[in-house]
Design a protein that fits this description.
Two copies of one chain form a homodimer. Chain A is an alpha+beta fold. Chain A has ten helices and 15 strands. The model of chain A is unreliable at 144-157 and 363-367 (pLDDT under 50). The interface between A and B is large, with 99 and 98 residues.
């Protein structure tokens, strides 16, 4: 594909939909975007405090080569909205940096579907794309030592390997000062909640790697969780005044909750709810309780919101969840501790026994 | 390198210097960063209007494999500060998304030097790193058709090829509403200025490609322009009330000025100043005026600021430039036009004759 035709595709599938969404935004009476895409910078008028997060989403590392383009576009944005929601901030604006493999440029169909996935989610949450950069990316000729510094500019195109597609999204969200849900905010006695079951996305990964076989129905559930995570943005905003601490489950419940425990200097005990739900929903048989527990507590990529709140709010939290079509699950309690101890910070209570749960999860680097 | 030791290096060379710079920032009485690196989002208090830009900087595309790590760190940030300056905004905060080749992880020395280049420039301009994401990037097994969709997850490590290092920086700047330098702001009769000579960076590229031989002194000048562009941030801020339009010269003067002309519905005539300076500084002999003109008007990567202003400000602009240690060069004039015509928009006057200059420049995709 020529650079010229690629430029036309970027204009058609990214700049044009961004302008269209912005026109609608302005037509609805919003004056917060002074200048959209097309100059050296975009210009926006932000209110209150600004939450900022950046996430890179790379083929072969964060998603499988062969993943539907629509899912890639959806999730590259979703993981960033999730960071914003976990802060209690309302996502408003995003930039999109897209690196396309030079020797195997994505087809027009791929870019169209990526765009549909991206803008469908952006429009759902009234998030404006206000900037971006599209570049090529190529493989590099490496010295035989494997060192990262080579004197050659680029490797010649190979029939068998290419550079990956890579997407970096930066999100700006708004919130009132002192309203953020910090990882350090959990209090002894708090209930621990998640906005839905965990382990489904990790089950989809295991199935795609050929290490797990799910029923067709369970497979669909798992694929949907991996490819099209729904981010509880509105629900998170409704938790102001209720939630003490929050984090999104990206690397696995135990690892992410571990950040809350460490930064709050707290320990926690989990009930068996997540493991049981994972086992039931995915149809994993009784002998595989260990597998279900691994998926539910250590599997990443679910992008559920995990938060803590005082027990008096439990009824209200269930009602809010119902309002937003979610299934708020109480998964444990924050316990007082004098000194955070990584090895004893998280325990699982099952059948009257408690066992230590390691604060580890899914590692992108060793998948 | 294990994921664990890499995590330690990222902590040492990115998170720690960011915290250190933030502590100094707070010690100097600034209260605009409510929360730095370490939670789901950073939290900042921005004043006025916010300028936002994102740029990706990729090995093998935007910089040569083998470029000094310090230069890579410097320039990945510089190109973003340049966008901010070209808008007349004061750069305040940046996020850094770093993709490291999985099968040839950068050495500790590389990360240290990258970090030094990045933070040296950031600290110079009092810009805070407030967020980031470090991920691996790997080559992908491609189908022989070269299509972008493969059913394999990743290619096996190759002795001869690897994925490139890629850096995406997003910058947030502050400015007062209605003070931005827009590409659409040029007025008939305006002088056109740049903050220094152009074509040096492109000459360095040509020399590294083996297509041009420079003297040792000229080569150093060219290398410095390519690897360590200095961004006229303070000078740009001093142009409020003076500059009508501005853009940074990233893709080549003719192409970038062309954006101003197109968006301002204007034409322009250039004098021979840039070509002559390029010729003199680089020691390109008389017969090579065509080459000097190509480099000066179409060579990219110089990151000089190009702006327009009413002629009455000329003396003040020279004085300001002197204050900030720059060499403001008047390179032409904006002419009135009824209808922008791409083929006639830019002309070069030399020895009493004018010739049309195509609005094209350096193309990252076809370098």
């Amino acid at each position: 594909m020529s650079a010229q035709s690629e430029f036309a595709l970027i204009e058609k599938y990214f700049a044009a939909p961004a302008r269209e969404a912005l026109h609608k935004h302005i037509a609805h009476g919003h004056h917060d975007v002074a200048l959209g895409i097309g100059d050296d910078c975009a210009l926006v008028n932000l209110r209150g405090q600004t939450a900022i997060s950046t996430d890179t989403y790379t083929e072969g590392i964060h998603f499988f080569a062969g993943t539907a383009a629509r899912a890639v576009g959806h999730k590259a944005l979703a993981v960033n909205l999730s960071d914003c929601a976990a802060m209690g901030a309302k996502p408003r604006f995003v930039t999109l940096a897209l690196s396309l493999p030079a020797d195997a440029a994505p087809t027009a169909t791929f870019l169209r579907q990526f765009s549909e996935g991206f803008f469908s989610l952006a429009n759902q949450h009234h998030v404006q794309l206000i900037g971006g950069d599209t570049t090529r990316i190529n493989i590099i000729a490496a010295k035989s030592s494997g060192a990262s510094v080579s004197t050659k500019t680029r490797a010649s195109a190979s029939a068998t390997t290419r550079a990956p597609l890579s997407v970096t999204v930066t999100v700006l969200g708004e919130l009132e000062p002192k309203q953020a849900f910090l990882r350090s905010g959990a209090k002894a006695g708090d209930d621990i909640w998640v906005t839905g079951a965990t382990g489904f996305a990790a089950a989809a990964v295991q199935q795609r790697l050929g290490k797990l076989t799910l029923s067709r129905a369970a497979g669909r559930l798992a694929d949907e969780a991996l490819d099209y995570p729904q981010i509880p943005v509105q629900f998170a905003l409704a938790l102001h005044g209720i939630a003490h601490a929050a984090i999104d489950v990206s690397d696995g419940l135990a690892q992410d909750l571990g950040h809350i425990l460490q930064q709050s200097n707290a320990h926690a005990v989990l009930n068996d709810e997540l493991t049981q739900r994972c086992q039931t929903a995915l149809g994993i048989k009784g002998v595989d309780v260990t597998l279900a527990q691994q998926l539910a507590l250590h599997g990443g990529d679910d992008y559920q919101l995990c938060f803590t709140a005082a027990p008096k709010h439990a009824t209200h939290i269930h009602a809010l969840a119902q309002t937003y079509g979610l299934d708020a699950i109480k998964i444990g309690e924050i316990e007082p501790t004098e000194q955070f101890d990584r090895k004893r910070a998280l325990r699982l209570a099952r059948s009257g026994k408690t066992t230590a749960v390691p604060l580890k999860g899914f590692d992108h680097f060793t998948r």
